[in-house]
Amino acid sequence: MIARAGIPLEWVIDTSEGAEEIEEDLMECLCNTKLSTHFRAFGKDVGALEPKSLEDIYKSHLEQTRLSATGGDSARANLAGTFVNAFTNAGFANDPLMAKAAAGDSWVYKNKDHGVTSAAASLGMCVLWDTAEGLGEVDKYTYLSDEKIKGGALMATGMLFCNTRDENEAVVALLEEPLTEGSALLKRCAIVGLGMAYVGTHKERVLELLLPLVSDETLSMELCSLAALSVGFTFVGSCNGDIATTIVQALMERAEADPNQLDDKFTRFMLLGLGLLFVGGQDKSDVIIETLKIIQHPCSKQAQVIVEMCSFAGTSNVLNVQGMLHYCTEVVDKENGGDDIYQAYAVMGIALTAMGEDVGAEMSLRTFSNLMHYGEPTVRRSVPLALALLSASNPQVGLIDTLSKYSHDSDIGVAMNAILAMGFVGAGTNNARLAQMLRQLAVYYHREPDALFIVRVAQGLLHMGKGTIGINPFYADRTIMSKNAITGLLATLLAFSDAKSCKSHISLFLARSVTKRGIPLFDPVILSDSHWMLFWLVTAMQPRFMMTLDEKLEMLPVTVRVGQAVDVVGQAGKPRTISGFQTHLSPVRLGYGDRAELGTEEYLSFASILEGLVILTKNPGYEDESKMEL
Length: 630
Description:
By secondary structure, this protein is an alpha+beta fold. The chain has 26 helices and 11 strands. The strands form 4 sheets. Strands 8-5-11-10 form a 4-stranded mixed β-sheet, with helices on one face. Strands 7-6-9 form a 3-stranded antiparallel β-sheet, with no helix packed on it. The longest helix is centred in the middle third of the chain and has 17 residues, at 241-257. The two termini are 43 Å apart.
């Protein structure tokens, strides 16, 4: 339970000199070392071990119009294949494109330019959580001369250690040299790798490496912002005043030296790094929000909104939702340099606050519908992203229909964000209805490479881990919110919230999205050269299973009942906690809203909630009725 929650080891065990040594099996549990082993055993048990090819996901033979390779951009198609393969075969380390590719025949070499970095990084997703053998698979790419491949391998190193703990701090040892002496590309990849590897660990060594980069004015805004974000990943929810002060000071210094620096598209990630420090902190961020008002730049308003929405994440605070709605309805004077991007963050802030309980989430759907009808283009484009955050890995029928309607919107920004949201909502569910919708969208957008790329990514998300991995941040019967998961979800969605007129990396297709009403161009960071940002989702990825173990931590198949969870709080007697249940032999897959309970009284559980890895012990008072003598 401690490992699943991502609680830093220093909070649980005494690491000082002379302290009593921790038993090896207990340390393995705390470090999540065996997660990969148990996950693959679960995959074998449910028949998900065999790797899936791209054609197994695309199912082109079911499409009304065959998508020929010559009909679109083959480089973009290969890049999309990188992400589809990574998400679909995540954690199994047996996909034919990367992990089991023959020497010299790796998928890396079928990509070009920045696609090479993402292809190399995808190996980290394929060998996810496998800290024993996965590092050897990734290591062979770190010795190549091509910096783009080497950078991807550094990112993969951090990725495979995500949500596990490393006693030897191998990731710091491997990434420290490129971080201090490497080129800008290698520094960027090392910074991102450290953030993913040490998410939620509060590791001081990472702070020593990254915080100086945040305040270094000689570095580009990209590196400073990503360093701040990785610090936010590592110290998520810590409310650390020293780190927050350093980030705010860096913003002030850049605003004074050259305000144009803060117009960079990567600035939002520095602001998010600041916000992540206060996830769940509520009123603890008040001082920082007041300090941010001093900065004379539009990013000041953006930072205030981001810090405020992170502070009340998952709290269902009604006053905070009202405050976010006020931001959404403000009139921005764009002719005099006004920037309305903060309204996009406010829309996501409504979802982030309301996602804590079902009633608030349902009420917010009505709000989003109104914003979609009457909001400005920037607000409308963020509504699908907010819906994705609100219902990650929970494909409700009404929500799917709404997103399907938005995916054909006249504003291409709304349409592409809606397609991505369909992937988020169905992540790891293999939902047949969503799969069919995405196949139809692939045909509809087959002449538009950027939209088709998003469709393919959504298909990969839908089949994440072949239906065994989800990205919903709530666990333990939806009573606890994972701060680590929130970091990845927010970072990825923020990368899609760009509604500014950027002249670089814009295709003719995107240029056509400018209408007579003056709708701004849609050019999110991810569609340029930063597609690797999709890998930030790795912090939210967790197996959707319930596996029972004996006291020796060996797999123990027992009879379990799985059904829809029923709220029995305040009911008299011992009412049933699940309805419409089916009886299975563990391990079993748990969907959103599912609950498991033991089928017999032969074993007793150490955990009150049967979810994830559950340790059982023999019930001393149990008598098998079938063997009782008459």
